[in-house]
Amino acid sequence: MIEEKLQSLGIKLPSPPTPAGSYVPVIRTGNLLFISGQIPIEDGKVIFTGKVSDDNLDTAQKSARMCAINIIAQMKRELGDLDKVSKIVRLTGFVNSVPEFSQQPKVINPASDLLFEIFGEKGKHSRIAVGVASLPLNSMTEIDAIVEFSE
């Protein structure tokens, strides 16, 4: 069902990105997945880089959406079947923003909206959206997730 939803939205999940450091992309404990921060990587390359400001809000939103797609790719790799997802519990969104920028929630909204659209009620989650001075590989955004699943 979730795979069909992805297909109807024209989303083809990429191979999940490999970690950029000394950590694992997903930890499974009990019925929770803790998904490490995902940046906007496509085919091994960071697509959206640099500081976010009012001038490039649209681009930053695309970056956040790509982070969400990479989160879903990590879920798929770990669970095998996205229909096992019972709840997106929480997202934490980091925005590589200039000091005067204060629209971090608006940047992360497309990631949240995509999860709502794909998973329906199961996609509704709590969230944090914060501005930071820099992110790995000069990425515009980074988002991690906590996801509940059932076998």
Automatic annotation (TrEMBL):
Gene3D superfamilies: RutC-like. Residues 4-143 form the Endoribonuclease L-PSP/chorismate mutase-like domain. PANTHER family: ENDORIBONUCLEASE L-PSP_CHORISMATE MUTASE-LIKE DOMAIN-CONTAINING PROTEIN, ENDORIBONUCLEASE-RELATED. This is Endoribonuclease L-PSP/chorismate mutase-like domain-containing protein.
